[in-house]
Amino acid sequence: MKFTETSLKGAFVIEPDRIEDERGYFARSYCQSEFSKQGINLDIKQSNISFNKDKGTLRGMHYQEKPHEEAKLVRCTRGSIYDVIIDLRPDSATFKQWFSVELNQKNNKILYIPEGFAHGFQTLQDNSEVFYEMFEFYSPESAKGVRWNDPAFDITWPDKQCVISEKDRSYPDFSI
Questions:
Q1: What are the φ and ψ backbone dihedral angles of 116, each rounded to 5 degrees?
Q2: Coil, strand or helix: which one is 111?
Q3: Residues designated catalytic
Q4: pLDDT at 57
Q5: Residue 61 burial by CB count (10 A; 0-12/13-18/19+): exposed, middle or buried?
Q6: Which of 12, 23, 138, 170 meets the CB 3.0–4.6 Å disulfide criterion with 112?
Q7: Where are the domains of the chain?
């Protein structure tokens, strides 16, 4: 596995090593020893799937507050997404900065998102599916979000026309 740290400290784009033959390929998406070498020690608590029927669907920007902060691995298993994370760690040198990467079924890239980050994505194709591995249980009382178009972050999204839930549209402006 190839780990490339993003511009946001502690977040990585991971490229699985593919072993290919006439049948296709085989690759690991998670290996505890390889993650440990990067200083990432995780215990998977749950896995989730997000299916999105329309191109332009935007989900986010979600996170969980302490004491239920969550790290996650995100991979697009069908279609293509523009995946975005925001560093919400007040003591971080990259506080309020964002990073994006295209995840799709062809490049097989995986995004590791550490605790203290908000996460969201916009689909680039119809019928896109996203697979999450979560390292904390979902906690409704800790579930929070920041608005996808909040000027505090000034995220550049690829598609101005988007399908977005009322909940995600209604988050207030970000404040510390």
A1: 90, 10
A2: strand
A3: 62, 132
A4: 97
A5: buried
A6: 12
A7: 2-169
Res 42: pLDDT:
81
Q: What is the DSSP string of 43-103?
A: ---EEEEEEE-STTEEEEEEEE-TTS---EEEEEEESEEEEEEEE--TTSTTTT-EEEEEE
Q: What is the pLDDT of residues 77-97, one digit of tens each?
A: 999 999 999 999 999 999 999
| Closest listed residue to residue 157, CA positions, set 81, 95, 106, 96 | 81
Question: What is the per-residue pLDDT for 175?
Answer: 85
Sorting pLDDT into bands at 50, 70 and 90, what band is 129? very high
Using the predicted structure, report yes or no on whether residue 176 has a pLDDT greater than 80.
no
* Pick among 2.40.30.200, 2.60.120.10, 3.40.50.620, 1.20.1280.260: CATH of 2-169: 2.60.120.10
Q: What is the pTM of this model?
A: 0.93
Q: Quick one: which of 82, 85, 143, 90 has its CA closest to 119?
A: 85
